[in-house]
Amino acid sequence: MTRSSATAARLDSASGLVTTRERWPGDTLARVDQADRGNGPCGHCDLGTLAFCDGFARRTVTSLMRVQCTLRFEAHDTLFREGDTGVAVFNVVSGAVKVYKLMPDGRRQITGFFFRGDMFGFCLDGDYAYTAEAVTPLSVCRLPMQRLHELSETAPEVQHRILLRMTAKLAQFHDHVLLLGRKTARERVATFLLALSERARRRGDPASPIPLAMGRVDIADYVGLTVETVSRTMTAFKREGLIDLPSPNHVAIPDTQALRAASDGSA
Amino acid sequence: MTRSSATAARLDSASGLVTTRERWPGDTLARVDQADRGNGPCGHCDLGTLAFCDGFARRTVTSLMRVQCTLRFEAHDTLFREGDTGVAVFNVVSGAVKVYKLMPDGRRQITGFFFRGDMFGFCLDGDYAYTAEAVTPLSVCRLPMQRLHELSETAPEVQHRILLRMTAKLAQFHDHVLLLGRKTARERVATFLLALSERARRRGDPASPIPLAMGRVDIADYVGLTVETVSRTMTAFKREGLIDLPSPNHVAIPDTQALRAASDGSA
DNA sequence: CGCAAGTTTGATGGTGCTCAACCATAGTGG
DNA sequence: CCACTATGGTTGAGCACCATCAAACTTGCG
């Protein structure tokens, strides 16, 4: 069974897991997953070494377990909105998340995609600066920022790990700003596909037939182009043999070096 | 006297301060300022509450003082380059810094400007992801990242403060990505000028006749346009009465709301 | 089968880039 | 004191790239 009773199913039990409605602000769509199942350090997820709590002292992991909360969302569900008071950070257990900002006239810029093992929703004081929305069915591990802060008094490694994640994200932003500010349409699309491929490789997944979790519109709103330009560019790449598109949502990269050349204009 | 013997002066004593050549990698241009003069918590700068060490426990401040180092640069000096191993973070005491990435064919994207009180050069493991260059004569407080990390074992507030700075920077990046990905030339320039004005206001400086520390080329490379477009846009704003340009390096904003309307297309 | 959503393709036009010249200011040396 | 130069900023003409508008195609689903 996939889901027989549509919206209602999301609020009570489904897929054999005990779930309850979540009470936190903005989380009306979330289902809380109370089942323990996973090889992760805290037993609540199967992220293994990708888990936020991986490698922490037993005591620290226990503290995190107590405040941790695994949530599930459907595609297109909103996790939180720009302007909501930021109270928690999220770790993606499975699925994909997009994070975006809107302009008054509806223009949208996606500022990040997050996949298995990624952390998002950094906020210390103040509100979320962006909206987070599930791209696919999604499972996330939520950690209240306040408790993380308290915990870091006694366990500085917690804060240090957040620092590491944020540093990585900052470096990513520098690259993305370069892409948006100075790259051509071809270079943007090539860079985007390469980044997905690189990421897959780093995670041990095959680097070449990569699945595209997001649609063309989302890609466009991420690389600062229109759907049409993204589509045209990808078919152009296909014509030129730079990529193959077995299906609209799968991209094969026969020659990484060639695509890399296309990604910075050295082609 | 301003400076009589040009380049040589930079390497020995100048302006009445005892200076020596700095030995750290990439810092061949820096002069180390060994004079104590300032109202800051550690006595090495006059940043006051803007100082990184402001509000820390006496013991923590002392630790920071011992590893701290105040450096001076001339405009166009390079502090560090993309690819250099990242060993320290910097706090701007006076002057302005730009941080940028280059593409193989010379295209440049400035990813940030930093002014009095700003912190840059975050790096944990690995290399700097960008080049940092002085825009004006510059004075910075350098803190070795390694010691900050060690210090945070006993003083978690150190790491927490870095976290705060990084969170702010992340939020800025979200805004800037929106600007680069989705805004028109007019909106970009308006947003840039408003951000400078806002910043001045927050720091207690007058919000309206704001000095432009950087040239048109730098502005263009920051907002993802060409010099010509930036120049044209600014004179257009002047024609329309949105701004005034008493000199090329000073912008007056008669009506903030009007400029704000121009910054997000609600005009 | 018909509909909806997503993707692709086509025709056309506008925004901002390119190339080029001109102007303003400050510094330099005769 | 005044060319002379260098640097940075402004202005103009033409064009390219990508956005816009429009329509056809594909796929999945009721």
TrEMBL record, chains A, B:
<dbReference type="Pfam" id="PF13545">
    <property type="entry name" value="HTH_Crp_2"/>
</dbReference>
<dbReference type="InterPro" id="IPR018490">
    <property type="entry name" value="cNMP-bd_dom_sf"/>
</dbReference>
<dbReference type="InterPro" id="IPR050397">
    <property type="entry name" value="Env_Response_Regulators"/>
</dbReference>
<feature type="domain" description="Cyclic nucleotide-binding">
    <location>
        <begin position="73"/>
        <end position="121"/>
    </location>
</feature>
<protein>
    <submittedName>
        <fullName>Helix-turn-helix domain-containing protein</fullName>
    </submittedName>
</protein>
<dbReference type="InterPro" id="IPR012318">
    <property type="entry name" value="HTH_CRP"/>
</dbReference>
<dbReference type="InterPro" id="IPR014710">
    <property type="entry name" value="RmlC-like_jellyroll"/>
</dbReference>
<dbReference type="InterPro" id="IPR018335">
    <property type="entry name" value="Tscrpt_reg_HTH_Crp-type_CS"/>
</dbReference>
<dbReference type="Pfam" id="PF00027">
    <property type="entry name" value="cNMP_binding"/>
</dbReference>
<dbReference type="InterPro" id="IPR036388">
    <property type="entry name" value="WH-like_DNA-bd_sf"/>
</dbReference>
<keyword id="KW-0238">DNA-binding</keyword>
<dbReference type="GO" id="GO:0003677">
    <property type="term" value="F:DNA binding"/>
</dbReference>
<dbReference type="InterPro" id="IPR036390">
    <property type="entry name" value="WH_DNA-bd_sf"/>
</dbReference>
<dbReference type="GO" id="GO:0003700">
    <property type="term" value="F:DNA-binding transcription factor activity"/>
</dbReference>
<dbReference type="GO" id="GO:0005829">
    <property type="term" value="C:cytosol"/>
</dbReference>
<keyword id="KW-0804">Transcription</keyword>
<keyword id="KW-0805">Transcription regulation</keyword>
<dbReference type="InterPro" id="IPR000595">
    <property type="entry name" value="cNMP-bd_dom"/>
</dbReference>
<feature type="domain" description="HTH crp-type">
    <location>
        <begin position="183"/>
        <end position="257"/>
    </location>
</feature>
